[in-house]
Design a protein that fits this description.
There is one protein chain. It is globular and about 35 Å long. Strands 1-2-3-8-4-5-6-7 form an eight-stranded antiparallel beta sheet, with no helix packed on it. The chain is mainly beta. The chain has strands spanning 2-8, 21-26, 40-44, 54-59, 64-71, 77-81, 90-94, 100-108. The chain contains no helices and eight strands.
């Protein structure tokens, strides 16, 4: 789960090449150990297509969620997984079935 209003970083040079970086907060452990609950995540909401594999913010029916996505060129589908081995989840879905809201481009964790 993700929380936040996608607070934009106007005129940001924080991440070169980012189209529209926005802040979100991780609210679940499904992407551990990569993303932990409480982490602040920088999401480029200007990237809504899965051309390269990575972690993306996806709009689900009841919440915004982080998922690892990769494009399968053979099937034309998108592979959807989570990093936490306690939640064995792998699914292939048509690319048009996902509401990709942006690509994760940075993670800020509390130490």
């Amino acid at each position: 789960l993700a929380e936040g209003d996608g607070e934009a970083i106007p005129g940001s040079n924080l991440v070169p090449g980012a189209v529209c970086p926005c802040w979100y907060e991780v609210r679940s452990d499904e992407m551990m150990p990569t993303l932990k609950a409480g982490d602040r995540v920088l999401v480029d909401v200007g990237v809504t297509n899965v051309e390269n594999a990575g972690i993306f913010l996806v709009e689900a029916p009841s919440a915004m969620i982080f998922r690892r996505l990769s494009f399968n060129p053979i099937s034309g589908n998108v592979c959807v997984t989570v990093d936490n081995q306690s939640y064995p989840y792998h699914e292939e879905v048509p690319a048009g079935a996902l509401k990709v809201k942006g690509r994760v481009i940075g993670v800020f964790q509390r130490i």
